[in-house]
Specification:
Helix content is 29%, strand content 23%. It is of the alpha/beta class and 682 residues long. The protein has a seven-stranded parallel β-sheet with strand order 8-9-7-10-11-6-12, sandwiched between helices. Strands 13-23-22-14-21-20 form a six-stranded parallel β-sheet, sandwiched between helices. Helix 6 links the parallel strand 8 and strand 9. The longest helix is centred in the C-terminal third of the chain and has 21 residues. 43% of the residues are buried.
């Protein structure tokens, strides 16, 4: 039994007012371990809630009478859900991502819904002593990369820059094989659930029952089982999206982040953590290695491999500049303005359609990419110009043909397509814009033969636990020759029979208003182009665009990352944008738009005064503006941006100014969202 009499507890309540540790007494005979969850009475009504035991104490606090200290009701688990390292990680996240401690702990520990009572699945651990040999001989470049990754140095971060089809996954597997042989464990992060089935299949073939997969579409009980197997050392490798970075391995040796440039590694809910940053910090605690892999690394990551960032740079660059099969797809840019001038008003350029017909006739497969789901992107009245939009969000409705309904892609609210205009009662309601459903409809009209087969992969067709896996497996088996999809088909997928990739609107992501728009466009086009011609057959790629002169599209056509990096960094340096500065986003959300604006105006005044007070003007305050989507689920959203070359002074400045604002304004009904260096500008 524990000899301690008191415990410091973090209550599992997400509110700033209780973001501190509370003292509780431990009943006689109760065995409590630091890191356990415990049921505790809280508040004036002694409501039973969950808490996390952070520290055990021998004596009560000097400022609280012993008879005023409440007792722990019971422990929720027989094992600790927090270790010394994961608690340190939670405390770091609290400071890094401006969240309360309970919010950070929720990311790291299993869901409170499990309550530690789910039966454990039987899982026979594989004896690591390679498991069948791989039989795959590495190229010289792959072997160099593996040797550096598995060297016995601790606490290192590598950026593996390899062109599409260069064998990055094989490098990962050889490095993991070495870690497992040493008795260490590994985590592989993938940016999309869609990539998880493919990665699991590859890694399971190599490592057997050492492998487990976790993601958001598993039940809380299933995720808990994976978590507990990892905690007990019954598995050695976990694969999953960003939350897998918190897998509680006791002897972590390697974290791999595949497609490291993807924005999905950045959480959109509090705490708004970046899984790449979390992985590196976690590796520091565990003396582990991190490998960031991509054919199109983020500019910030690539910058960290250069002496310009620092000497020595924090990341070590490893390169795989050649495809395994030495074959690269032929990429053609199609100017849709010229198509229109020739009288072609269809969705597809003439060469695009001809190449697709040729691909189908040859028995090959094609991937068609459009990063917009639904049938039509908006519905409008041709008589008065009225556009139908969501009443709860400031976004246009998207028409979905399979449901014959208009849906909001932010709140999910839907309504029937009206027969007359709500504004002028005319019957001239028309559908405009193109989504993946419309592409599917057009393709089926072009290829009515049922033997051709068409599959669509977007959020509408992949709902459910195994939605992605079913679509991908059907395409892999050849049940369809054409796969249409959003960005989930643009990266990481490897189908030997795919010889054509078509991008319907290559410039769609150029018009987001984000300073990273060109970078995102280059990455997306380069990645999706890399899906073609990965095996014995050569590949062709067609990029349809109304902006063929843009450097992001021209350089993506050549898969020329180095020149894109040089060009884009010149612009970033001139504009003092990241990585040459840090950006802090302060967003206020609430039911009253007027009150949001007034509160932000007060904050702006405080910031301008503090910025000028020392006559330094070191902070560039970018004034108040509505968010990119200024209303979601009946809540308005307005923001203010601040830039500074130095990270810590920027953080201190913003937090100080917000503190001063709250001293005079309680911000009732307003939620403050703080994000430093956001991946996507909201």
């Amino acid at each position: 039994m524990t000899s301690n009499q008191y415990a410091l507890v973090c209550v599992d309540v997400l509110h700033d007012d209780v973001d501190r540790l509370f003292h509780y007494a431990i009943p006689a005979g109760m065995d409590v371990i630091a890191g356990q969850r415990a049921r505790i009475p809280f508040g004036r009504g002694n409501k039973p809630i969950m808490g996390y035991v952070i520290e055990l104490l021998d004596t009560p606090p000097a400022d609280i009478a012993p008879d005023k200290i409440k007792f722990i009701d019971s422990v929720a688990d027989v094992f600790p859900v927090l270790t010394q390292d994961t608690l340190a990680l939670a405390l770091w996240m609290k400071e890094k991502y401006y969240c309360i401690l309970a919010s950070a702990i929720r990311c790291i520990s299993p869901s409170s819904k499990t309550d530690g009572r789910f039966p454990m699945a039987r899982h026979k651990r594989a004896d690591v002593k390679p498991l069948p040999a791989t039989g795959i001989e590495l190229t010289t470049q792959q072997q160099v990369a593996v040797d550096k990754i598995i060297a016995e140095d601790d606490d290192r971060t590598f950026l593996l820059h390899g062109v599409t089809g260069s064998g990055k996954t094989e490098v990962y597997m050889h490095a993991i094989e070495s870690m497992l042989a040493r008795g260490k464990q590994a985590i592989v992060l993938v940016p999309e659930i869609a990539l998880t089935p493919q990665m699991v299949k590859l890694f399971t073939a190599r490592f057997g029952s050492q492998v487990a997969v976790t993601h958001s579409r598993l039940t809380a009980g299933e995720r808990f089982q994976i978590w507990k197997l990892a905690l007990d050392g019954e598995i050695g490798l976990v694969i999953g999206p960003r939350s897998a970075v918190f897998t509680p391995f006791a002897n972590l040796g390697l974290i791999v982040i595949d497609e490291e440039h993807e924005h999905t590694y950045h959480s959109e809910t509090t705490p708004k953590y970046d899984a790449r940053e979390v992985a590196i910090k976690r590796a520091q605690f565990a003396n582990a290695t991190v490998v960031l892999g991509s054919a199109t690394p983020s500019l910030e990551s690539y910058f960290r491999t250069t002496d310009e960032y620092g000497s020595p740079p924090p990341y070590t660059l490893l390169q795989l500049p050649e495809r395994i099969n030495k074959s690269y797809p032929e990429v053609t840019v199609l100017d849709m303005r010229a198509e229109a001038a020739r009288g072609n008003m269809s969705i597809f350029a003439a060469n695009f359609q001809a190449a697709l017909t040729e691909t189908i006739a040859a028995g090959r497969q094609a991937i068609l990419f459009l990063n917009r789901r639904g049938h039509s992107s908006f519905v409008s009245c041709r008589w008065c110009g009225f556009v139908l939009s969501c009443t709860d969000c400031r976004v246009n409705h998207t028409y979905h043909a399979d449901k014959n309904r208009m849906l909001c892609h932010y709140c999910g609210k839907g309504t029937e397509l009206p027969s007359t205009c709500p504004a002028c009662n005319s019957k001239h309601i028309r559908l405009y814009g193109v989504g993946t459903q419309k592409i599917e409809e057009e393709i089926k009209n072009l290829f009515p033969d049922p033997d051709v087969g068409v599959l669509r992969m977007d959020m509408d067709t992949t709902r459910g636990k195994f939605g992605h896996a079913k679509v991908l497996e059907a395409f892999r088996k050849g049940d369809a020759q054409i796969l249409i999809g959003t960005q989930m088909v643009a990266k990481g997928l490897d189908f030997p029979n795919v010889t054509m990739v078509g991008v319907i609107a290559a410039d769609l992501s150029l018009h987001t208003g984000d300073f990273r728009a060109a970078e995102h466009t280059f990455q997306l086009l380069t990645q999706v182009s890399g899906r073609a011609g990965r095996a014995m057959h050569s590949g062709k790629v067609f990029l349809q665009t109304y902006n063929p002169e843009h450097y992001a599209i021209k350089l993506a056509q050549q898969a020329d990352y180095e020149n894109f990096y040089t060009h884009e960094m010149t612009i970033r340096r001139a504009m003092v944008y990241p990585p040459f500065s840090h950006v802090f986003s302060i967003m206020f959300s609430g039911a009253s738009e007027k009150e949001l604006i007034i509160a932000l105006q007060k904050l702006l005044a405080i910031m301008e005064y503090c910025n000028q007070r020392d006559r330094q003007d070191r902070f560039n305050i970018i004034g108040i503006s509505p968010a990119f989507v200024s209303k979601i689920k009946k809540l308005f959203r307005w923001k203010l941006l601040v830039k500074c070359r130095e990270e810590e002074p920027l953080k201190a400045f913003v937090l100080y100014c917000i503190k001063k604002l709250k001293e005079n304004d309680p911000l009732t009904g307003i939620t403050v969202h703080l994000t430093q260096n956001p991946i996507i500008m909201e």
